[in-house]
């Protein structure tokens, strides 16, 4: 970490970003998550909500009740404490086991991605289920989950022309990242599989499953099992197994 | 059911309240009314707290019918006109409306968004703590279509009220530089402040794209995605400044040259496609002071609302020409 960070960047009168760097890496993101928890538990006056992203935390505030200078000073202090390791979480966070059916109708780009990487589709799946991924952020669409930790051998640029609509719950690769989609929508990412897990289900408690800082492993399942789990998932079951570590 | 039924409305007509907060870290937009001051005034005239859900009309306006029971309604929005049964309601007045009445809200001069509030608010199911509709994700439902029923929560025989017209706020839309001003050439902030820009036809509740001088990136036109909010002026590779608004995503990967101050978001939202937008740079301190001044101004206007204790019917008020009399007698 260089001397520039952590630093504050106001976004007008209604938000302040606390930046920990400008690269995608687990250490930077860990600081963002730790600050998010510290801010959330501090109940700072005027803070509406926080959005953790790859390398910064956006603190949304109410300009009528927040005291900008005081809040900024508090955020700087907390950010430095985070960098000094004062807010390291007790546990390791949650580990989710997420079932995925790869290829075919569930992941129509698996074959082409494998060919571009000089690998067999089976090998791509093998490499994709191996790592423990980190949820860097949730954004873009409700519940859309950005993952870090992709095997570099699978890194594949986004499609030149994005698709106007991809199925919900698609598991995809875009550059050096993988993602779990939520609702259907436009995407330029390469679709390699689909999970019956719904990151976002408006009539389920919890409505959202994953949050920044969680960890995720994928488990390959056959299409027949996908159908069964999908029906349970639609009915409001979580389907993904969660271990709190 | 006491409430309203949609007879006809423009494609972008939705139910909106102050917005859906607390879920942005899960990728959920806040949504919420595009012009808070107008929605707050419509609500205040109808006897509601400022953030109560109302019907937000976009450009075309619409017509609704009153179904069983009497309701108090009020409309507000730059240049919008409220009519009940063809009779124009004077600006700044609430009105009582009877079953069978046809309520019409139309833009008559400029403006984009108009609000129709009903005394007691609408009795509709909340999604994640809000009635606001986010059309892109479907959270909160969909846009209104003819035939939709909007039940009233607690239709009371509310008091009629009126407020004098506000002095119109004019001048440039103010912004605070940053957060990523350093991703642009030195003259880009000046270009933004000089303009002029016009609102593109492809603008919507998510963002207003501005045609005019193209801004230039000093380097990469992409950043590692970070948080955005209503007011963020992001600039994609094509150099076209794009002001994010209430339906915007929670994160974005384009650098943001500046941020429109919260006090001016409603005024920007009321700038119709094809109209000119001029910007001016202010400091962070000035933006906070402006937010507080705007809130005070709104408070003062709401405090100036006169409530009429009597319960004359709208027909009576209109037929007796009492509306004009009361206005003239103040």
Our count of domains of chain A comes out at 2
Strand order of the largest sheet of chain A: 5-12-9-10-7-6-13
Order of helices and strands of chain A: EEHEEHEHHEEEEEEEEHE
Measure the end-to-end span of chain B: 38 Å
At the fourth level of CATH, the homologous superfamily of the largest domain in chain A is Cyclophilin-like
Output the keywords.
heterodimer; A: Gyrase A, domain 2; 2 domains; 4-stranded antiparallel sheet; B: 330 residues; alpha+beta; 8-stranded mixed sheet; 6-stranded antiparallel sheet; 28% strand
Describe this structure in words.
- The complex is a heterodimer of chains A (about 240) and B (about 325).
- With about 240 residues, chain A is an alpha+beta fold.
- Chain A is built from five helices and 14 strands.
- Chain A has two domains: about 5-85, Gyrase A, domain 2; about 95-245, Cyclophilin-like (Cyclophilin, Beta Barrel).
- Chain A is about 25% helix and about 30% strand.
- In chain A, the strands form three sheets. Chain A has a seven-stranded mixed β-barrel.
- The two termini of chain A are about 30 Å apart.
- Chain B is α+β, with helices and mostly antiparallel strands and about 325 residues long.
- Chain B is about 15% helix and about 30% strand.
- The interface between A and B is large, with 46 and 46 residues.
